[in-house]
Amino acid sequence: QRFSGGIGSKLCGTLEEARQAPAAQTAGTCGCNKSCTCTKSAVVFSDLYSTDLLPAMDGDTKTMTFLQEVVDILLAYIVESFDRETKVIDFHYPNELLQLNNWELQDEPATLDDILISCRATLKYAIKTAHPRYFNQLSTGLDMVGLAADWLTSTANTNMFTYEVAPVFVLLEYVTLKKMREIIGWPDGRGDGIFSPGGAISNMYAMLLARFKMFPEVKEKGMSSVPRLVAFTSEHSHFSIKKGAAALGIGTESVICIKADESGKMIPADLERRILEAKQKGLVPFFVSATAGTTVYGAFDPLIAISDICKKYSIWMHVDGAWGGSLLMSRRHRWKLDGVERANSVTWNPHKMMSVPLQCSALLVREEGLMQNCNQMHACYLFQQDKQYDLSYDTGDKALQCGRHVDIFKLWLMWRAKGTVGFEAQIDKCLELSEYLYNKIKDREGYEMVFDGKVRHHPTLRFRSHAVREKPLTLVHVAPVIKARMMEYGTTMVGYQPQGDKVNFFRMVISNPAATFEDIDFLIEEIERLGQDL
Known about the structure:
This protein is of the alpha/beta class and 534 residues long. It has a domain at 7-128. The protein contains 15 helices and twelve strands. The protein has helices at 6-19, 60-81, 94-100, 112-124, 144-156, 167-184, 199-214, 218-221, 240-247, 268-280, 303-312, 370-375, 408-441, 475-489, 517-530, and strands spanning 134-135, 192-196, 229-234, 255-258, 284-291, 316-321, 345-348, 361-365, 447-449, 460-465, 493-499, 502-509. A seven-stranded mixed sheet has the order 2-8-7-6-5-3-4, with helices on both faces. The termini are far apart. Residues 21-29 and 467-473 have low confidence and may be disordered.
């Protein structure tokens, strides 16, 4: 009765068919593992194709039955993902996995039964990123409200370029970006912003805006119209800064890497020195990217000192807070981003520390209208000037993309469900687990912290595991061997890498809301078990 239009009567008809179905089937006939009279068993997917589903005539029942089957597969996978008795990964080498299933595309259509088999196979070999013992990447965990929002987003299947095709989503993006700017500390949440396909694109947007702000003629006349530009970033910064410079025609050689101290923080004195050197060579400094939560060390650059330098030399200051920006939600930890309110732009990825389903990355800009002026092309087939509503809500012309995915609803719905205090508690818990791990291994035999000092920055720990044996492996090989064994056993996953003169070490990331103290204990014991013969 709640459904409007004809869908209500159609659903009632489907339910009535189920009620009038023959006597109860044998338990499990429809996959429910219990006696029932549902119509699932009456639908033979091996005889059906996608053309039998909506919008096909009389495709209602078949569509709902098929989608219910898909949902059942998804729900089973979700429950399994949170079960610590299951594997994080069912690892196979690429050539093996290619042979296990027929992944090739065919000229003829597959049956819906084959489609369901493909769904099961895909999830069987997928990494369970929601698993409490998955620590491999910055983006981990699976939030149920965020998942529901993602399903709704795909069902709505619209584009974010105009209010006329995405009215609610455009308004939610407006409301959420304003809230995020308020949290950064910009007065009344004024400014601009956009959700983009990941932190790398958000960082490139920032560089694009910085260049346009200094030399607006570059939009029409290109790089030949401007002097040689140079950007500055920490030697520990994300590779996307150089990628952005390459994509924008500035060139990777025009990105000057500033020295970091032992803990991974940019050294302001070296930044100022390199700016002066560049200016003496006739180069034009236009962009400084500070990092709030470096990818490897989890370090926070000294934003106040960097902002003073940027102000002194009239340089755009960007803060790449893709990893660490979410600490702004925590009253206990937001001091690590002191000075962020002085930035011209900020990248913030809720799909990392806040566990919003991928992808969800925001670029926040302090100056309102700059994005529009920088990127607009006045496409008259989309952005007509005589529409009946406020055209400021047609946000597509300030984006580089034309087609833009709806990334906002996941974050907005999770924020409604948790409240700011819920995100704060989630983030504080991750920091607490990080400190717990540090205290467990700092003096533990067989472990070595990559650099000394208590956890002060972020839930990213760097440590090595040593196997003290008569014939130990070369240190560089220990982490890769243990990681390979983790994947083969499927018990847990944690990343590793070298950094500068430091050979391979484990990079432990704690952003999974499902992780507990017991999971940290398990990880330590599992590393020791897998490396006991090395």
